[in-house]
Write a structure and sequence with these properties.
Shape of chain B: elongated
CATH topology of chain A: TIM Barrel
CATH superfamily of chain B: Glutamate synthase, alpha subunit, C-terminal domain
Number of domains of chain B: 1
CATH architecture of chain B: 3 Solenoid
CATH superfamily of chain A: Aldolase class I
Strand content of chain A: 5-15%
Strand order of the largest sheet of chain B: 1-2-3-4-5-6-7-8-9-11-10
Number of helices of chain A: 15
CATH topology of chain B: Pectate Lyase C-like
Order of helices and strands of chain B: EHHEEEEEEEEEHE
Structural class of chain B: alpha/beta
Shape of chain A: globular
Strand content of chain B: 15-25%
Structural class of chain A: alpha/beta
CATH architecture of chain A: Alpha-Beta Barrel
Radius of gyration of chain A: 22 Å
Number of helices of chain B: 3
Strand order of the largest sheet of chain A: 5-15-14-12-11-8-7-6
Distance between the termini of chain A: 57 Å
Number of strands of chain A: 16
Number of domains of chain A: 1
Helix content of chain A: 25-40%
Helix content of chain B: 10-25%
Largest sheet of chain B: 11 strands, mixed
CATH class of chain A: Alpha Beta
Oligomer: heterodimer
Chain lengths: 441, 229
C-alpha cells in the first residue's frame, strides 16, 4: 500500500448511478420502465422568465382596488354555445380508470366552485364528473373507450385528442391491475387485462380527414359545442395551423412537462418539446393566419403557479390547463403519507407509479380500500383554493404590469434569464434587446 | 315518406331535421336524394326511423347511429356507421376504409366489398360483408361479430381482443395474436342468425366459414412476446 492519498471514487457523468441502476433494472426485468407524471429532467421553463413590472413609462394598477379581469370565452369561432369561464386555468384531461371516481368528483367540485372546466379522459364520461362539473370538456380519443353520442351531446365542449405532451405520437397503456369491473365495463374489455390505447385515430388520418371528422361531430351536436383540438408539443407551428385549417375552435397545446397516467419513461423524457418553446410557435401560426384570439389557445405542461399562468398568457395563450398540479392540490404525493410511500419503495414528491393502482392518497387507484380514503368534498375544496390562489397571483402580476385584464399581458412585459429561455420563448435577455435567433447581439 | 333533397336543402338542415325526431314520431320514412358523396349524412340520428339514401355517400355516413335503419343505395365513403350504437345500416355497394369503426352495437351490412380496417376497434357491433375485406381489418377489435362471405386481406384481427371473426374465403394473413378457432354449434347458430339479418342467408351456409379469435397471449405484457407487439 502506498502512503500517497488514493484517488477518490469518481462517478461517470455518462454512466451515473441512476443510469447504471436503470441498465440493471432493464437487464433483470426485460421491460422498459413505465411510470406516470411528466418529464423530470431540467428544462428551460417559465422560471427562466421574469416580469418587468411598471416603471415611469407605464403605471401599475392599484393592487386591491382596480379591476383586473380573469374571465375567458372559449369556442367563439364556430360554436353556437361558446363557454365562458371565470378564470383562465382549466383542468386537463385525466381519465376515469387512471384516476378514481372520487378523485374525478373532486376535480369537478373544485373546478366548478372556482368557475372553470374539467376534462374527461381515455375512459369515457363518469356520472361523478358530469354531475359535479358545471363545464365539462369531453375528449374524443383514438381508443374511443366509452365514446357515445349521448355523452357528446351532454358535454359542454368536445376535445379531439391528437396527442399529449408527455408522449406525442404515442398511445397509452392502462395495466390490468386497474381494469376493475367498472373500468372494464366502460371500456368494453375483459377485467384485468392490459388495456392498450392506440396512438392514432381509427377513422381518420391527416388534416384533411380531421376537417371532415370535425364536421361530423359538429353535425352530431348541431354545431352547439366548441371543438378543441389537442396536440402534444412536437411541431406546434404546423399542428396549430393545421388544426385551425381543420376547423378547430380552440387549440390545446401540451408541452413535454405535461403528465400522463402511464407511459414509458424513455418516451416521457426523450420525446417532445418544453412548453416554453411551443407557445411562441403556436402563437405565430395563429397570427400568420389572422386567427390569434379568434381561435383560442390553451397551453399546458408544467403550469404550477399564478406566475406561470401570467407568463403563458403574456406569451399569447388565452388560457392554461393543469393536470399534475391539480392532483398535488388534491393530496397526491403528500409528505404526510411518507410511511406508505416508503413501503412502496419511493418517497413523497417522487411517487410516480400511478399505473400500479397502489396510490396511498386514493387518487390514482381503482382499489376501493384506497380511494375510500379520499374525501372528494375536501379534495374539491383544496383544488378550489389552489385555483383561486393561482388566479390572485396572476392578477397581482398583471396589475403590477399595468394591465386591467390577464389577457392584456404581452411579451413586452417579460424578460429572460438565460440564452436558452430567450431563444425558445422569443423574449429578450434581461437588460438587452437580444433574442437569440432573431435579433443581433 | 319525407323526401329531402340534400343538394337543395343542405346538410345542416338534414341532420337538424333528423335530430328533431324524438320518440314516437310519425315521420318514420325518409328518403335523401342527391347525396353526391357528401360527408356526415344522417349522423347522430336517435329515432326508430327508416332512411334511404339514394346515391353514394362521403365520410361517416350514419355515424353514431342509434335506433335508425339507414340504407345507402350506392357506395359509402370512409367510416360508414362509425361508433354506431344500435340500429341497422345497409350499404348496397362497397364501403371504404374504417367501416363500422369502434361501433358499439347494431348491425352494419355491406353488400359489396369493404376496404382496409373494417371493424377497427369495434366494441360490440355486428358487421356482415358480402364481398371481401381489406388489410388490417378488425385491428384491436374488442367485441361483436364480423362475417365475411369473401376473402380477408393481410393482418386480419391484429391485436384482437374478444371480437369473433367468421370468414368464408381465404385469409391472406392473420395479425398478431389472432388464431383460427374451433367452430362449435353455438357459433353456427350465431352465424345463421347473422347471415339472415345480414340479407345473406341465401348466399352462404354457416358450415362454409372458419372462425378466428384472440389467442389472448398479448393480454398481459410478457417479455417473451415482445416481438409480437
Amino acid at each position: 500500500m502506498s502512503d500517497f492519498p488514493h484517488t477518490p471514487p469518481r462517478f461517470s457523468a455518462t454512466f451515473s448511478p441512476a443510469i447504471n441502476a436503470e441498465i440493471r433494472r432493464a437487464a433483470a426485468s426485460g421491460i422498459y420502465d413505465i411510470r406516470g407524471a411528466g418529464t423530470k429532467r431540467h428544462l428551460p421553463h417559465f422560471d427562466d422568465l421574469l416580469f418587468l413590472g411598471a416603471s415611469i413609462s407605464r403605471y401599475p394598477l392599484e393592487g386591491y382596488r382596480e379591476k383586473c379581469t380573469t374571465d375567458v370565452w372559449l369556442g367563439t369561432r364556430f360554436a353556437k354555445k361558446p363557454i365562458h369561464l371565470d378564470i383562465p386555468v382549466t383542468i386537463a384531461g385525466m381519465s376515469f380508470g387512471s384516476l378514481s371516481g372520487p378523485a374525478k368528483e373532486a376535480l369537478g367540485r373544485g373546478a366548478s366552485e372556482a368557475g372553470t372546466s374539467t376534462t374527461t379522459g381515455d375512459g369515457g364520461m363518469t356520472e361523478e364528473e358530469r354531475g359535479h362539473s358545471k363545464t365539462l370538456v369531453y375528449q374524443v380519443l383514438p381508443s374511443r373507450y366509452g365514446m357515445n353520442p349521448d355523452d357528446l351531446r351532454r358535454a359542454d365542449c368536445i376535445e379531439i385528442v391528437v396527442g399529449q405532451g408527455a408522449k406525442p405520437g404515442g398511445g397509452g397503456m392502462l395495466l390490468g391491475q386497474k381494469i376493475t369491473d367498472r373500468v372494464a365495463k366502460m371500456r368494453n374489455l375483459p377485467k384485468g387485462i392490459d388495456q392498450r390505447s392506440s396512438s392514432r385515430h381509427p377513422d381518420w388520418t391527416g388534416p384533411d380527414d380531421l376537417e371532415i371528422k370535425i364536421l361530423e361531430i359538429r353535425e352530431i351536436t348541431d354545431w352547439e359545442k366548441p371543438i378543441y383540438v389537442k396536440v402534444g408539443g412536437a411541431r406546434p407551428y404546423y399542428d396549430t395551423a393545421l388544426a385551425v385549417k381543420a376547423g378547430a375552435d380552440v387549440v390545446v397545446l401540451d408541452g413535454m412537462q405535461g403528465g400522463t397516467a402511464a407511459t414509458q419513461d424513455v418516451f416521457i423524457e426523450h420525446v417532445g418539446m418544453p412548453i416554453l418553446a411551443c407557445i411562441p410557435l403556436a402563437v405565430q401560426a395563429l397570427q400568420d393566419l389572422g386567427m390569434h384570439r379568434k381561435v383560442q389557445l390553451i397551453v399546458s405542461g408544467g403550469i404550477r403557479t399564478g406566475a406561470d399562468v401570467a407568463k403563458a398568457m403574456a406569451m399569447g395563450a388565452d388560457a392554461v390547463a393543469i393536470g399534475t398540479a391539480a392532483l398535488i392540490a388534491l393530496g397526491d404525493n403528500d409528505p404526510k403519507l411518507e410511511a406508505e410511500y416508503q413501503k412502496l419503495g419511493t418517497t413523497a414528491d417522487a411517487y410516480d407509479d400511478w399505473h400500479e393502482g397502489k396510490d396511498p392518497a386514493g387518487i390514482t387507484t381503482q382499489n376501493p380500500e384506497l380511494f375510500n380514503r379520499f374525501d372528494p368534498v375536501l379534495g374539491g375544496r383544496r383544488l378550489k383554493n389552489y385555483l383561486k390562489v393561482m388566479t390572485l397571483e396572476a392578477q397581482t402580476i398583471a396589475r403590477a404590469c399595468g394591465k386591467n385584464s390577464l389577457h392584456n399581458l404581452e411579451p413586452e412585459d417579460l424578460c429572460a434569464l438565460t440564452i436558452e429561455a430567450a431563444a425558445m420563448a422569443g423574449i429578450p435577455i434581461a437588460g438587452t434587446k437580444w433574442i437569440p435567433g432573431k435579433t443581433g447581439f | 315518406m319525407q323526401t329531402f333533397d340534400l343538394e337543395a336543402q343542405g346538410l345542416r338542415a338534414l341532420n337538424a331535421s333528423l335530430h328533431a325526431l324524438k320518440g314516437l314520431t310519425n315521420q318514420t320514412a325518409w328518403e335523401i336524394i342527391n347525396p353526391k358523396g357528401s360527408h356526415a349524412i344522417a349522423v347522430g340520428v336517435d329515432a326508430p326511423i327508416e332512411i334511404t339514401v339514394r346515391g353514394s355517400t362521403g365520410y361517416y355516413c350514419a355515424g353514431m347511429n342509434k335506433q335508425a335503419t339507414i340504407r345507402v343505395k350506392g357506395s359509402a365513403g370512409p367510416g360508414v356507421a362509425e361508433n354506431m350504437m344500435s340500429g341497422t345500416v345497409i350499404v348496397d355497394g362497397d364501403a371504404s376504409q374504417y367501416a363500422g369503426a369502434t361501433g358499439n352495437g347494431g348491425l352494419l351490412v355491406i353488400k359489396g366489398n369493404a376496404a382496409s380496417r373494417c371493424g377497427i376497434s369495434m366494441k360490440g357491433i355486428d358487421i356482415v360483408v358480402h364481398g371481401n375485406i381489406g388489410h388490417m381489418s378488425c385491428f384491436m377489435a374488442q367485441s361483436g361479430n364480423v362475417v365475411v362471405l369473401g376473402d380477408a386481406g393481410d393482418a386480419l384481427g391484429d391485436s384482437l381482443y374478444e371480437a369473433r371473426l367468421f370468414v368464408r374465403g381465404s385469409v391472406k394473413s392473420l395479425g398478431a395474436d389472432c388464431i383460427e378457432k374451433e367452430m362449435r354449434p353455438e357459433h353456427l347458430a350465431l352465424l345463421a342468425d347473422l347471415l339472415k339479418r345480414g340479407e345473406a342467408d341465401g348466399k352462404a351456409k354457416p358450415e362454409e366459414f372458419k372462425r378466428y379469435g384472440s389467442a389472448r397471449k398479448l393480454y398481459n405484457f410478457n417479455i417473451d412476446n415482445a416481438s409480437a407487439y
